[in-house]
Write a structure and sequence with these properties.
The strands form 4 sheets. The chain has a 3-stranded antiparallel sheet with strand order 4-1-5. Strands 2-3 form a two-stranded antiparallel sheet. It has helices at residues 12-21, 28-35, 39-48, 55-63, 75-80, 106-119, 123-135, 140-143, 146-159, 164-172, 175-180, 197-204, 216-225, 306-310, 312-315, 317-332, 339-351, 356-364, 382-393, 397-400, 404-413, 417-420, 442-456, 486-497, 504-514, 523-538; strands at residues 229-234, 238-240, 248-250, 254-257, 266-267, 285-288, 291-294, 460-463, 466-469. It starts with 11 loop residues before the first helix and ends in a 7-residue tail after the last helix. By secondary structure, it is mostly helical. A hairpin with a 2-residue loop joins strand 6 and strand 7 (291-294). Helix 1 (12-21) crosses helix 2 and helix 12 packs across helix 13. 45% of the residues are buried. Helix content is 46%, strand content 6%.
């Protein structure tokens, strides 16, 4: 049984557990400060992001056209070596106003998201966005638009704690998803056969699970309901790619049902100009999950076919709740839950009317979440692992602002995201990545060790003919007071990096190898402290959270 009653009291270790699982870690001081508050109120504010000072973070996003601080060059500036002034950002970080600002680079988009995870005060909002990006896995290699990928990720960020049916509909209307699973090609008008790709996946991968309460006729009927779901592009959102003047790209798009009506934006999804939308949407009635819908005459305020999509939660509520419960448990609590645990969490989700904000507050504030058996019971995913380490070891944003290396670091590191096991924004298929122990293999660990070197050892790389630190760190800042012994050095780093318990034989061996005799907090000892941090991050204990 999963005891979902509120935990009556908690400790600093409990607060740190919340920070790791539902964010990207907390410093020892921040965990201690959070633990002073009543747990129910603290968890509620953690989920809501209440009481946070986001002014500096938002200012950085607003004043930097590229949050990783890569200079932009016009053709004339490139010839002379000059660097353009920063551009004011548009709605998406890597597609800004101006003819020379096109940034259709997956690496820069990944860097943008990693930067936000590292510095966003509302860490839980970014953590939920990362969670949904795996559940609604969508790949850049087919979408081929940074703007659309970041637009979708922003949907995860802004709608990730709404009702699940609202999130499901928002994702179904999303231009990246429309391209990814071929909604733009779903034409069921007249005698045309509907494209069933999205209708199948929206149940199999996004709401119910494989063969869980639906059959092939339901897929066919839902495909008809969602036929013609596509998008249009206004003229103002079309940009000529300066790296390829023959190619136009879109900075934004608007959801439309292609039903033969007038096109208010002038451009279809493939950038073709048209005054009228093609007729692709089906008409008449369908029977879906034992209910009948008129797909041509939706209820007021809903798109044609939207009522059928929303009915998944009412017609198959118990199956949908169990599907969501399993995904949430694997990501936030434990993959080794029992059938009774799953039933309890699913019942809670269904009782909350699929209100994700309420469900997450209940789950994260429960005795079940804080059960000691669930502490360090998960292998951490590669993105949250490196971001959490970066939060622990690098400067806070107030001190990093203006220091170019701290912003440009992620553009160099994201190239290893794929090898570490999670190519952010670009999974190989719509089923995303498996979690927990699936994150670990010999190749993935090899690239985690390289990332750990960049952080803990201050590894440098060639940049413009000189060495530039990827993540500038100050080892002295890692300790509230200077350690007086190897054992104190270890204790300080364990408190900072928060690995699973390290076997005494292992840590004793590390200390003996690093400090075979004598100790003084000098430059040599500080270098050894970096090496010790590297060992902790690379150890088996360092992969658990």
């Amino acid at each position: 049984m999963a005891d979902l009653t509120p935990v009556p009291s908690w400790t600093t270790d409990d607060a740190a557990h919340l920070g790791r699982r539902a964010g990207f870690g907390l410093s020892p001081g921040s965990a201690a400060a959070l633990a002073v508050r009543p747990p129910a109120a603290a968890v509620s504010d953690w989920v809501d992001g209440a009481g946070l000072d986001r002014a500096l973070f938002l200012d950085v996003l607003a004043t930097r056209a590229d949050v990783v601080d890569e200079p932009k060059r016009t053709a004339s500036a490139t010839a002379t070596g000059a660097v353009d002034a920063p551009l004011v950002p548009g709605p998406h970080p890597f597609l800004v106003e101006g003819p020379h600002a096109w940034r259709n680079s997956l690496g820069r988009a990944q860097a943008s998201l990693a930067f936000r995870m590292q510095y966003e005060p509302h860490a839980f909002g970014e953590r939920m966005a990362l969670f949904w990006s795996n559940l609604f896995a969508t790949g850049f290699h087919k979408v081929d638009s940074v703007a659309f990928m970041l637009k979708q990720y922003d949907t995860f960020r802004t709608r990730g704690l709404s009702r699940f049916d609202d999130l499901l509909v928002a994702v179904s209307k999303d231009p990246a998803m429309a391209l990814w699973l071929d909604s733009v090609r779903n034409n069921a008008s007249g005698t045309n056969v509907a494209n069933e790709n999205y209708a199948r996946e929206v149940m199999e991968l996004y709401s119910l699970g494989v063969d869980n309460g639906y059959a092939q006729p339901d897929i066919s009927q839902l495909a008809r309901a969602l036929s013609g779901w596509s998008f249009t592009i206004p003229d103002a959102a079309l940009v000529t790619d300066p790296t390829n003047p023959t190619r136009r790209v879109a900075s934004d798009a608007s959801f439309r049902v292609y039903d033969g009506s007038a096109n208010p934006d002038g451009n279809l999804w493939y950038l073709g100009a048209a005054a009228t939308l093609p007729r692709m949407h089906a008409t008449g009635t369908i029977t879906f999950l034992d209910r009948t819908f008129d797909v041509g005459n939706p209820p007021t305020g809903l798109a044609p076919g939207e009522d059928a999509l929303r009915s998944i939660l009412t017609s198959r509520g118990s199956q949908c709740a169990r599907f969501l419960a399993a995904r949430l448990l694997v990501h936030f609590v434990t993959p080794r839950f029992g059938s009774a645990d799953l039933a309890d969490v699913a019942a809670m989700i269904q009782a909350s009317s699929f209100d994700l904000r309420a469900a997450m507050k209940t789950l994260l504030g429960s005795r079940y979440f804080f059960d000691p058996a669930h502490r360090f019971a998960l292998v951490e995913g590669p993105i949250s692992w490196i971001v959490r380490a970066a939060r622990a070891l690098t400067r806070p944003l107030a001190e990093a602002d203006g220091a170019k290396p701290s912003f440009s670091a992620w553009t160099s590191v994201v190239s290893s995201f794929d090898q570490a096991g999670m190519k952010l924004l670009d999974p190989s298929g719509p089923n995303g990545w498996k979690e927990d122990v699936a994150w670990l293999n010999t190749n993935a660990i090899r690239f985690r060790t390289r990332q750990a070197a960049a952080l803990a050892l201050g590894a440098a790389q060639a940049a413009g003919g000189s060495d530039a630190l990827l993540f500038p760190t100050d080892v002295v800042r890692w300790f509230p007071t200077a350690p007086a012994s190897p054992r104190e050095t270890l204790a300080g780093l364990v408190a900072l990096l928060q690995p699973a318990p390290i076997p005494a034989a292992v840590s004793d061996g590390w200390l003996q190898a690093l400090w075979p005799s004598g100790f003084s907090w000098d430059a040599a000892a500080q270098l050894r402290a970096r090496e010790l941090a590297y060992l902790i991050l690379c150890s088996p204990s360092g992969q658990l959270y």
